[in-house]
């Protein structure tokens, strides 16, 4: 792959925070209501495409920039170094007359509980889609990205992360029967949008989140036929109440929905709210925060979304004191994303 690329394809997709109603977007929940917020920084995919000189023997190179790894993908594709990336390439029916290198990058740390893996998958599949006949809609790409995790990799995976990355913005997802769902973006006035953006803070807890024994215990409660799933209802309710609160521009009510969701997570299993998250929440309370949501499914590591109060001084005081409480904690800069998946070509001759 030494000749200059004939095409340079780009795709970006936002991550998501504050996923009210999470856990109800799963196969065992059967139906769900989820409200989440797409934010920058984006996950990025870039393809450098070249005409292959060995018919039927396509050369594919993966550059996982965050990990400092660059390697050629064997044929047939093996799920070895980065199974998610490799499975995305495997599921697409790509022309065997093209060689390409794919570069992938995200500012958000891996395992941040902000749907970063889903955003990478959506961006990668979106870029690859530009190499195939016809085109998929963002919704179709989101469903395909979810299939990569559930079918190709055999993982437990809901539907909300991929949909959030594909659509962007503030999404209300009504999953009427897994995995089928309608997605509605909340169209808010600039005043509410800007005020929400000003108040939100994303805190990384200093270590990557990964599926744990605790998650397995929670899932096992709901797997059996006829199991009691009433504990999922407060999560669905939090999503609906959060949606209504944002439409009204009622930030106190939105903060209450965030807190209710976190307590509903705790009710599923106390360990879903980690000691690190409790420390961040306590500091946020001290500085006048209105709400807090442990992102994703909860458990060890990951991140917390905070909704600060009216005065900027409280937010700044929290951010200043955070590293004194735990040097591993850090605030990740975020901006609300008005767009979801974006795909375009760069000039290849520069």
Which CATH first-tier class would you pick?
Alpha Beta
- Secondary structure tally, helices: 10
- Total domains: 1
**How many DSSP E strands?**
13
Largest sheet: 9 strands, mixed
Which class do the helix and strand fractions yield?
Answer: alpha+beta
Strand content: 25-35%
Quote the average pLDDT. Answer: 93
Catalogue the unreliable spans.
none
Distance from N terminus to C terminus (CA atoms, Å) equals: 17 Å
What global shape is seen? Answer: globular
**Which fold name corresponds to the CATH topology?**
Ribosomal Protein S5, domain 2
Gyration radius, in Å: 21 Å
Into which percent range does the helicity of residues fall?
25-40%
Q: What is the CATH-assigned architecture?
A: 2-Layer Sandwich
Query: In sequence order, what are the helices and strands, one letter per element?
Result: EEEEHEHHHEEHEHHHHEEHEEE
